């Protein structure tokens, strides 16, 4: 498995940022699971709905934590990112290394046919009819579709993962996942509590999958540009709720700067967005002050023409400056062809 290589300044930024308050969703999620398990404070349907929705949002925040782990930007410790990522990946049915390898290429080849993470929306060989049908399964069955979509980078005959060490690591992670969940299901069946497992874990997880894929669609669907600042929707919250949601999801909603600079500390993304707007005043970036505004902008693509890149009307991308297998400092400078760029760099 590759390990993200940071510059001295990047590592200093990661070590200096304060991350611990953002982890509040981890213990809160556990509290929600416990309350669901023991029917606290009662079995009243209102309380069960509350705890299910509360826990599902906490699990959604866990997916954002998983995302930070894949970048190795959770903290100054790469080992902490790797091992927490493996725990979270096992819980979410997506091996950590599968997610990381897919996500590396998602940053480098955004909206292109080689963007495995956005398949089938990035694949010009998929028909519009197929994508119109598939997207409803992707939205409503995210719990199952995410393991399938991410797993393609390992199982597909044209997989770019050719390093035997990487493939061996992924096989081990799949084996641990099967062993863990096989044991959980077996024990729950033996003690007759499979319904409780579905109620306490799978239902909140199912809802979290819907939230997560809604986020994926909102940030990407309908975006044609290969320039990361223009090929993603960015949300810079103007109200307390949006700001809190952004905070507890590690600022991932500030998506354009994150896509261009995948090694930057998440607490610096807002400033980076301001820098780009100041440096390029003539460019109208797809920036929204609420998440609802971004969702409304995405809705026509979702309903009528689900796609990105070539499937959203872009010409075929130019050849990249180089092929990569790790996160880089600035994908525009190091990977994307100049013909596919619009935004000036910000040093």
Automatic annotation (TrEMBL):
Which InterPro entries has this protein been placed in?
FA_desaturase_dom
Per the record, the GO terms for biological process are:
lipid metabolic process
Q: Where are the transmembrane segments?
A: 20-39, 45-62, 83-99, 133-151, 172-195
Q: Where is the Fatty acid desaturase domain?
A: 46-289
Keyword annotations: Membrane, Transmembrane, Transmembrane helix
Q: Does the keyword Transmembrane apply?
A: yes
Domain of life the protein comes from? Bacteria
Q: Which Pfam families match?
A: FA_desaturase
Kindly provide the name given to this protein in its UniProt entry.
Fatty acid desaturase
């Amino acid at each position: 498995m590759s390990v993200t290589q940071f510059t001295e300044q990047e590592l200093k930024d990661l070590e200096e940022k304060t991350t611990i308050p953002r982890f509040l969703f981890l213990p809160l999620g556990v509290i929600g699971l416990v309350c669901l398990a023991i029917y606290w404070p009662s079995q009243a349907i209102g309380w069960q709905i509350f705890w299910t929705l509360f826990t599902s949002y906490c699990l959604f925040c866990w997916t954002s934590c998983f995302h930070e782990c894949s970048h190795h930007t959770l903290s100054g410790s790469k080992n902490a990112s790797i091992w927490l990522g493996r725990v979270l990946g096992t819980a979410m049915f997506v091996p950590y290394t599968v997610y990381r390898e897919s996500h590396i290429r998602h940053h480098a080849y955004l909206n292109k046919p080689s963007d495995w993470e956005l398949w089938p929306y990035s694949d010009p060989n998929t028909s519009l009819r197929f994508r119109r049908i598939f997207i409803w399964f992707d939205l409503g069955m995210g719990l199952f579709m995410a393991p399938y979509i991410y797993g393609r980078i390992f199982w597909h005959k044209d997989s770019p993962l050719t390093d035997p060490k990487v493939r061996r690591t992924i096989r081990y992670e799949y084996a641990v996942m099967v062993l863990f969940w096989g044991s959980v299901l077996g024990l729950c069946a033996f003690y007759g509590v499979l319904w409780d497992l579905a109620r306490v874990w799978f239902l909140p997880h199912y809802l979290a999958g819907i939230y997560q894929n809604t986020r994926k669609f909102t940030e990407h669907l309908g975006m044609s540009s290969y320039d990361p600042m223009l090929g993603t929707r960015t949300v810079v919250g103007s109200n307390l709720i949006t700001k809190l949601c952004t905070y507890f999801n590690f600022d991932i909603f500030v998506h354009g700067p994150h896509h261009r600079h995948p090694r930057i500390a998440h607490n610096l993304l807002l400033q980076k967005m301001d820098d780009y707007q100041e440096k390029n005043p003539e460019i109208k970036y797809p920036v929204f002050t609420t998440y609802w505004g971004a969702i409304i902008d995405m809705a026509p693509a979702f309903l009528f023409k689900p796609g990105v890149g070539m499937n959203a009307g872009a010409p075929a991308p130019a050849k990249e400056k180089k092929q990569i297998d790790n996160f880089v400092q600035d994908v525009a400078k190091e990977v994307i062809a100049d013909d596919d760029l619009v935004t000036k760099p910000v040093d």
